[in-house]
Amino acid sequence: MQDYLIRGMTKDKQVRFFAVTATSTVQTAIDLHYLSITASVVLGRLLIGGLLMSAGMKSSDDLLTLRIDGDGALGVVLITATGEGTIKGYVQHPQVELPKNEKGFAVAEAIGNGSLSVIRSIGKQQPYVGNVELISGEIGEDLSYYYQQSEQIDTIINLGILIEKDAKIRQAGGVLIQCMPETTEEMINKLNENANNFPNLSDMMDMGYKIEQIVENYLFKDIPIEIFEKKQVSYYCNCEKSRFYNGIKLLDKAEIQEMIDNGETISAECHFCNKKYEFTVDELKRMM
Is 0.90 topped by the overall pTM? Predict the structure, then answer.
């Protein structure tokens, strides 16, 4: 089934929400990067979070980058999402595996202490960069904390992944709920009550509930909502040889000359999809 994202608001315009089913998207990332179970859950959560956070961007040229720099075994975890619903990402050490703990997957332990960076590139404006410390390493809480600290927006984020022992994704999805400035205390209390009584997201998806049913019947129980948009989302890498060519051209001329003197074809590999691009000696000479 094709992954998709929905966007909507309560009918009184007090609260907006985004929700996504991303099973195929996360599975594609796992297959491309040969991820361990732990790395699959970590990157999967960040991919889901990235899809939700980028859902409000208007243009296909707009970009959102989320980067986690932790001192745990996984190292850097990074995703980039576009305004048209595509996303890509990678883990610095994709095969790291940690045993489960009392909370389940050892996500926080694998990430460690560190920071979350949020970079928004919108049109021709200067990119906006926000940084916060990781408060839990569970990703959902950290993204909510970013909104609270950097944008002063009360936000609930629920990220869910159900994964088999062979790293096959059974379900992956998430919900982002944000209160507008005029949100009443009564509405906030009702949302918190619904969230506190809400079962596990990925388990509900596995029982056959569609993401829009979960939003309407559980997270917004007794709260009228409207869904304005439904769009497809997917994992997609837009790398091409010309980008790597231009990147090599920026190197010091002495470095390029050294490559030429070695007389061998060199290769460059994309972090996001592992595709390799080769450059012959003649191509290197044209960069001089």
Answer: yes
